[in-house]
Structure formats: C-alpha cells, structure tokens
Quinolinate synthase
Amino acid sequence: WATMAEDAEAILKLKRERRAVILAHNYQTPDIFHGVADIVGDSLALAREAEKADADVIVLAGVHFMAETAKLMNPSKTVLIPDAHAGCSLAESITAADVALLRAKYPGRPVVAYVNTSAEVKAASDICCTSGNAKKVVESLGVPEVIMLPDEFLAQNVAKETGVKIIAWKGHCEVHERFTPQEILQLRQTHPGVVILAHPECPPEVVEVADFSGSTAVMADYVREKKPARVALITECSMSDNIAQNAPETEFVRPCNLCPHMKLITLKNIRRALEEMQTEVTIPAELFAPARRAVERMLAVK
Ligand code: 13P
Ligand code: SF4
C-alpha cells in the first residue's frame, strides 16, 4: 500500500513521462486539487482549458460528462477518466430521445443543454451552458422562450434572472437538491454575519434566501476578492476545503453535501489511470460534430 505522498510523487513523475496534464474540478478532494492538479476550476473553465491544453494526455479529475467535453474540445489528445463510473444525477436524467420529444412538443424553441449532459444529449441540443454562463447564453439567443435541460432548478433560477420563459426538464443535482431554506435561515441564526453563497443548482427557495448565487468559480472569486469574515458555501463539501487553504482570514461554516460521483476519483486511481492509460474517453463518430458545435457555440458567447 502506497502512502498518499508516494501516490502523489508517482503521479508527478508519470505526468512528465506521459506529457500529461490533470484538469480537476473544484469538488475534488484537496490532495488532488492542491497536490497534483495542473488546472482547477468550474465546468466552464475546464472546458476552456481542455481546448487549450498543450499535452499528449488529459486526465480529467471530475465526472464523465466533463471528460467527454474535454475530448470534444481537444479530440487529438488522449483523454482519461480515472473511474469511468463517475456519473452525475443530472446527466443521467435525460436522453436524446427525451430531447426529441421536447422538440416535438415545443417546436421552434431553441434547446439549451447544461454541460452536465451526455455527448448524445449535447448533440441533440442547439447550445450548451454552464452555471457560470447560463444567464448570458439564454439572453444571447434573443428569443422569449427556450427549452433548458436537464436541471429544473437552474432553469427556474435563470428564468427569474432573465425574464425569458423557460421550459424545463425535471432533472436535479442530488447534491444541491437536498439543501433547504430552513437550513439556511438556521445558519444565519447560529452564525451571525455569515455571507451565504448558493450554487444555482439549489432549489429557487434556497437561492432566494442566500446572499449571492454563482458557479463554483464565482464562489471562489467572491471569497478571494471580498475576503468575508464568515462564509457558507451551499454546495459540495470539498469546495470549502479547497478554497479555505488560501483564505486564512475567512471562517468557513460548512453545511455541505457530498457528491458520490466526484468522490470516486482518488489519488490511487489517478495514478493507475496514468500507469495503465485507462479509461480512455471517446465520442461516437456520429455524435462528435453536433455535440462539439453545441459546446463551441457556448464558448463563443461573450
Ligand atoms: P460548476 O463548477 O460549473 O459550478 O458546476 C458544479 C457542478 O455541480 C459540476 O458538477
Ligand atoms: Fe452531478 Fe451534482 Fe455531482 Fe455535480 S455535484 S457531478 S451536478 S451530481
């Protein structure tokens, strides 16, 4: 059994040998986030960085749809995911056949797919969005009504911010759907002065009683720039662990829910992924062009 330090050291060596970079989502544990990752960020940053990555191999320390997006944006690279079972309750809530039914039911409405979807669903959609750009993407379409899937709560939160009518799907993030407004109000009582930042995958009633809502990168920027004395990040547990290391002046109140999919990725399986060059993520040929187009359109929205 190798220790954590031995695994981390082996990973750093393998990265050089394989000419590999590790892109890690903000929900990865600190040993990955601070220890071995080359680039960390929210879903939007990881998509942008994957496109730019100058390496032979991209290891995506995150969930499967993120690795698919990386492959779509940089197809000549070998993209590895350390555990191919790292899924997402949102991505699993909808298929391309469901998108076709929605289009038939609501003809003429553009389909905005959250990046938390499979390549198959992206290919059936017009444009992607992330929690970091959903408002801009919806507004960029310049229409009064859109279909936005699969996250019902993100759709409701964006509808409130934009005034665009949104036809939603009933998918939920199993991490964020569990937060309640009661929990937030309780936090305010027990931790006076706490600034509450909620992820837009939370139910609208939760976002309503928070001080601010934004993607994981927006939360990290808020803490870095505003240096609040006390903060609660209403999101996955590793988020606070990761940013607390660089924010000694901030007290982190930590109500959090764990994402079991993100937590499938470990130092051990990152090491194994690089040793064995497994599991390689590929996109079926017929899906590649339309799925990439949806992501490219999103990245073109300024
Ligand atoms: P962002 O990092 O883009 O805010 O997404 C959160 C999330 O749940 C990703 O799985
Ligand atoms: Fe999916 Fe939610 Fe986990 Fe993100 S936190 S991967 S949205 S289940």
